[in-house]
């Protein structure tokens, strides 16, 4: 059987200055999380010293907010590692970007691969009967030289905590993996941390199920899109629906309240609308997102996403996401095509733009290219409803009145977007956007969201 390989920096732990990790406090979560690349994190975790480590994802943060005992267990951990797209989005709400997504499913096998080279052993504790053993067998196959000190299930094997602690200690394990589920695994480690002898203890959630093959991991393209949670929801809808549907909305809403504060009741309600609509859209449209990403990858060389700096509320710049619908040299060729614009005014648009790819023409016609902006809504850089986000070069050329459209967040849809898009001239677009900015209400936003479906099906001005 082919062994798994892990491309890591093999710097000896003893050579790490101070063997410490940088952390960053995310105000939206009120948590200090590790802010370091995976390689550096692994080196420090395997360096001399005793450490208890927990992973924090959106579900963990929801429990952290309402469960005092779990909150104390997390606070007592030596390190808290950021896990998943939810934590990343919460950081971006306040402009905080962490160095890496340190999810346990990827990090722990890589850590064990390096531990094997150092002669360290691991004990697996948790899961249904037989799962820890199957996970240990998988690790032994994938990581030559890894020593399995012992295994114990999380049912009868966890019924007597003192017996479990004694078995772990008697095994002589250097590393302990505890997979009892959140919050039980963190509470168990917190309760017994001073009785355990392994230097490194990690709460690893569903890792054993992944390793044992009872739960399959999402395809690589799904993981790159940061949508593995959708894959898991599809696999176990009954068990995970509450966590991933209601839970994700609750997580993002509370993170937004911490990040921005309820400036007004209307602002708080509008942000809740944005979070609810964008989260549900992400779930319902995930098959379209995945198929589009695959089509772009097969059609032309280059990245799936197109990233471009746009101007948001009050002139603040941000990076907007779209599906790439043009050739990779599109930006370099823009100036030479300005004269061919079909649209009056500052904003360039050409129905016969030669930079648009075959797949690009289809996804533009159906407005699918705009869907990744859902992530911009989740981070608070955009809203579901608002003016079209402008380029910095366009804003620099704005007449004074046009600056009024920057008074509100730009949106995925809006009055201009449902009224004809590129078929509407710049001056009329400005008047529409200013009119929306001064008279917007939640009812208006809901009406524009509903009108969006008709505008997409009609396709007017979409090219």
UniProtKB/TrEMBL annotation:
Please report which protein family the annotation says this sequence is part of.
Belongs to the bacterial sugar transferase family.
PANTHER family in alphabetical order: COLANIC BIOSYNTHESIS UDP-GLUCOSE LIPID CARRIER TRANSFERASE (PTHR30576), SLL5057 PROTEIN (PTHR30576:SF10)
What is this protein's name? WecB/TagA/CpsF family glycosyltransferase
Q: Name one GO biological process term.
A: polysaccharide biosynthetic process
Locate the Bacterial sugar transferase domain: which residues?
Answer: 270-457
Matching InterPro entries: Bact_transf (IPR003362), WecG_TagA_CpsF (IPR004629)
Q: What domain of life is recorded for the organism? A: Bacteria
Give any GO molecular function from the UniProt entry.
phosphotransferase activity, for other substituted phosphate groups
Looking up NCBIfam families in the UniProt record yields:
wecG_tagA_cpsF (TIGR00696)
Q: Any idea which UniProt keywords this protein has? A: Exopolysaccharide synthesis, Transferase
Keyword Cell wall biogenesis/degradation attached: no
Pfam families in alphabetical order: Bac_transf, Glyco_tran_WecG
